[in-house]
Amino acid sequence: MYAQALDQKDRSPVIAEDPVRLERFEARCTAEDKIEPKDWMPDAYRRTLIRQISQHAHSEIIGMQPEGNWVTRAPSLRRKSILLSKIQDEAGHGLYLYSAAETLGVSREELSEQLLSGKAKYSSIFNYSTLTWADMGAVGWLVDGAAIMNQIPLCRCSYGPYARAMIRICKEESFHQRQGFEIMHTLAKGTVAQKAMAQDALNRWWWPCLMMFGPPDQASQHSDTSMRWKIKRFSNDELRQKFIDAMVPQARFLGLDIPDPELRFNEESGHWQTGAIDWSEFRRVLAGDGPCNRQRMRVRRQAEDEGIWVRDAARAFAAKRAARRQAAAIAAE
Amino acid sequence: MDVVAAIEDDLFAYALMLGDSALVLSHRLSEWSGFGPTLEEDIALSNMALDLIGQARLCLDYAGKVEGRGRDEDALAYLRDDNDYRNLLICEQPRGDFAVTMVRQLFYAGFMQPCFASLMASRDSTLAAIAAKAEKEMAYHLRHAGEWVIRLGDGTAESHTRTQRALDEMAIYVAEFFTVSAVERRLADAGIAPDPLALRAPFENSITPILKEATLIVPSFAGGQYGGKNGRHGEHLSRLLGEMQVLHRAHPGATW
């Protein structure tokens, strides 16, 4: 999902970098050295990372909503605790990622403001609705499954704080994916209604999940530099293919049908081939016209607004306490 | 009815009281998921909801076993109506703003922490084991809510007003903590559960200094609303259960 950040146009003015430093930097990237916050880095590298890390963080935060939609209706106490823990993990991922972005010289407040103003994007997958309980399965199995394909290579990203955050995130994501598969498995082996619910969820999530990897390689804009700087290691199409090859056998194991009449195994390439992806839908959702774009932003802004007085109170109290301590220290002298 | 059967009925009812309060309050806390005033607090609220779901599951599972009619935690959570629920009324009140949530947590944990501390010495080893785990959680919830109530009470004029209002709204449900139902009376006499009356002093000892430090007016906790322990609830519980149970009840007998 997070590949989308790399496919946005960078509109900032290009800064002419010192060629000697740039060469040394690129040599470090090639040598798989980790770049740390205090190291010199090209301006475009910093901007790309801030954009990508913050978009990933925003996606985690907005991604809490479609799953939060089912917390109060989870059909068993076990499922309810798992779902709540999963959403809690996502808030935690948001936290690590905002912290990683802060090492690049931008504050969490600024990033949050960019999300609320609509300047920063989040993954378009979260603009789809979660209509049934099976969507909790499909989101874990497919959406988190697609996210993992994108994220595993990021554990080796050249930027140290991001790579380290991703190691922990990937461990948790992989657990999330397994629980999603387990929900699908339970439904697929369940009653007729439950199996139909699982198939319907797969029908609705399959194509949007293929779009999570971003536009096809020939239409992608940033890959060359990002690959050289070891931010991105695989192209959108390569990752999408890996995902398809992993998911088709899993769907078959579940006894569910991939909603693609043109899906076939290409003996020559050894890969599953899908029908054409409807990129007009992707562009439409990205441009703000998905089922839930407005709702997700409205809810996020509402949560921010309702928290203002709490954050103000916490700040005011901290200031009062500091002043009292100072006064006490002076009195003691 | 023989003595053992009578005790079993009481144990079942008592485990439901503990389990239902935890379940209903966890539901209210889970409504904060994605809405916390900060990311850190969102995570903390989910954590507390998870602690309470854990307690609810242990208590309901035990209630089902004591009852011996084959009802598991989910049958008890999802297939009972509101008048069969035995939770304290404070737990079912709507989520409210962050001040309401923190004041409620303070009251609930302020009561349940000494309750579980006493229950750890229960002659019933399962209840004692559940209490040993839950007491630690309640001590943490109490600390967390206490810190927030102080911050909010002594923060800004707005946060002070909201917190005082929350305090006055929630205070009317506190007296119910210390009412002694027939079940609790018999279990207290048998050394199985604490006497709720004995929990009033520890409750007030932990709550009062916090409210004073928060510059809030300590309510009297007199009078108020009762009925939860006997299945007589307010208007909100039926709706809460309606939402919680909708999917489970729509697919009778399904496994999830």
TrEMBL record, chain A:
GO cellular component, one term: cytosol
Coiled coil: none
Family annotation (SUPFAM superfamilies): Ferritin-like
GO biological process assignments: phenylacetate catabolic process
Domain of life: Bacteria
Single Gene Ontology MF annotation: phenylacetyl-CoA 1,2-epoxidase activity
InterPro entries: Aromatic_CoA_ox/epox, Ferritin-like, Ferritin-like_SF, PaaA, PaaA_PaaC
Record-linked NCBIfam families: PA_CoA_Oxy1 (TIGR02156)
PANTHER family, alphabetized: 1,2-PHENYLACETYL-COA EPOXIDASE, SUBUNIT A, PHENYLACETIC ACID DEGRADATION PROTEIN PAA
Protein name in UniProt: 1,2-phenylacetyl-CoA epoxidase subunit A
Source species of the chain: Candidatus Raskinella chloraquaticus
TrEMBL record, chain B:
GO biological process, one term: phenylacetate catabolic process
Domain of life: Bacteria
Gene Ontology CC terms, in alphabetical order: cytosol
Matches recorded under SUPFAM superfamilies: Ferritin-like
InterPro entries reported for this sequence: Aromatic_CoA_ox/epox (IPR052703), Ferritin-like (IPR012347), Ferritin-like_SF (IPR009078), PaaA_PaaC (IPR007814), PaaC (IPR011882)
Database matches in Pfam families: PaaA_PaaC
Protein name, as recorded: Phenylacetic acid degradation protein
